[in-house]
Amino acid sequence: MAEEESHNNGEVVERPIDAGKKHPLERPWTFWFDNPTGKHKSAAWGTTLRSVYTFSTVEDFWSLYNNLFLPSKLPPGADFHCFKAGIEPKWEDLECAHGGKWTANNNRGGKTGLDALWQNTILAMIGEQFDEGDEICGVVASVRARQDKIALWTRNASNEAVQMTVGRQWKEFMDYNDKIGYIFHEDAKKDKNVKNRYTL
After folding, report:
1. Contact 198/180 with Cβ under 8 angstroms?
2. pTM of the model
3. Would you tell me how many other CB atoms lie within 10 Å of the CB of residue 118?
4. How far apart, in whole angstroms, are the C-alpha atoms of residue 65 and residue 154?
5. How far apart are CA 137 and CA 42, in angstroms?
6. Comparing C-alpha atoms, which of 58, 64, 68 is closest to residue 26?
7. pLDDT, tens digit, for every residue of 180-196?
8. Hey, what domains does the chain have and what are their CATH numbers?
9. pLDDT for 46-97, tens place per residue?
10. Among 66, 85, 187, 189, who pairs with 28 as Cys (CB 3.0-4.6 Å)?
11. Name one GO biological process term (predicted).
């Protein structure tokens, strides 16, 4: 396959198209997986968390995404993450330490509903669709026996205006009409039954 290219002398020549050219993303992203299989109750949180793959182009993302398990195929207790490269999906990570997370429950479409929320969120993140894109750390899909959840992690929990902007856009990108809530990681460390600081 070739495309036409015009030169100053009016002559039209064919130039081969580079079919192997990849389209870089603005920044690299990493998939993480927390496998509950064989996890001991006494094991510290995060000890089973594993980095799966880092991608930095559109083509690498789709190649990887199409060959990974979707959240709906994972066992109960599993967490699937997609975070900016260099940020670990842990409260202790410096980029997450003062942050928090928006959480949406999967209230529609059964397990496949979670897949749609997951894909729409990832595409919005890696496509830099959020106005406050620097605020985003990553997303976590949590598969649970009672109710699956998806959470969008952000950097500066105390900046309410920014968090509300992120939350509104996230709901729009997911086409999600139910309520979402935002908790501070700092609150969650102290109280397992932490209350939302912001809701939309």
Report:
1. no
2. 0.86
3. 23
4. 23
5. 28
6. 58
7. 999 999 999 888 888 99
8. 26-199 (3.30.760.10)
9. 678 999 999 999 999 999 999 888 998 998 999 999 999 999 999 999 999 9
10. 85
11. regulation of translation
